[in-house]
Design goal:
4 helices; 4-stranded antiparallel β-sheet; alpha+beta; Cyclic Phosphodiesterase, Chain: A; about 25% helix
Amino acid sequence: MARLFVAIPLSPLLKQRLQEIQPPRTTGITPVAADNLHLTLQFIGDAPVETVLAALANISLPGFQLAFSHKPRYQKGVIWLGVKDSPELKVIQLAVVKALVKAGVTLQPKRFMPHITLARYKRHVPTEMIELLLEERAGVVPDEAAVAFGLYSSKTVDEHVIYTRLRAFPLQDG
């Protein structure tokens, strides 16, 4: 079994823009690598890959636009950029949950808060420092077309998290 999650991948152009607003690597702050930037729809944890793939293969929904909040936020060791709620985003997230539950995949109940994790910070980092870094790097993040979602695995190697897309599931043309 593998540690799995379902996410919407981000375009290279959006990842580049997100890197511009990420706080820089400094003592106690670690930015998320560009390859690991994504919008999680559902964390699964340990589960059989083939079961999850079969469940997700039955989802057929149209693509839609992702819109982002204007300023990154921080809380509980995470610096993140909010994704604005939309009916389409709620529909896809709920479709993923329903498909997984129907397939017998055990999920931890957790409220869906759409966001993109930009960095992680240690408790000792002063909030004033985080606020200053975010203010210095603030900027507009353009909307993004969500054209697919995917199943990803997560593993840690030498204290670095590596996400691997196992399969992409395209969304239909609207």
